[in-house]
Amino acid sequence: MTQWRKSSRSADTGQANCVELARLTNVVGIRDSKAPEAGHVALAPGDFAELVSHIKRNELDL
What we know:
Helix content is about 20%, strand content about 25%. By secondary structure, the chain is an alpha+beta fold. The mean pLDDT is about 90. β2 and β3 (about 25-30) form a beta hairpin. The protein has one helix at about 45-55, and strands at about 5, 20-25, 25-30, 40-45. It has one helix and four strands. It has one domain. It starts with a strand and ends in a 6-residue tail after the last helix.
């Protein structure tokens, strides 16, 4: 069974925009914590690391 994890900084109020992560076979899974039934995006570990770097540098229009 896949173990999805949410950030410890996520508020448990139901109002937070949260994502969950899971280590899947050879990829990192990313999904919306409020709609897990909608599926997930799978990224290679290097691509996931690059995404996180861009987010930390505020280089994405989020």
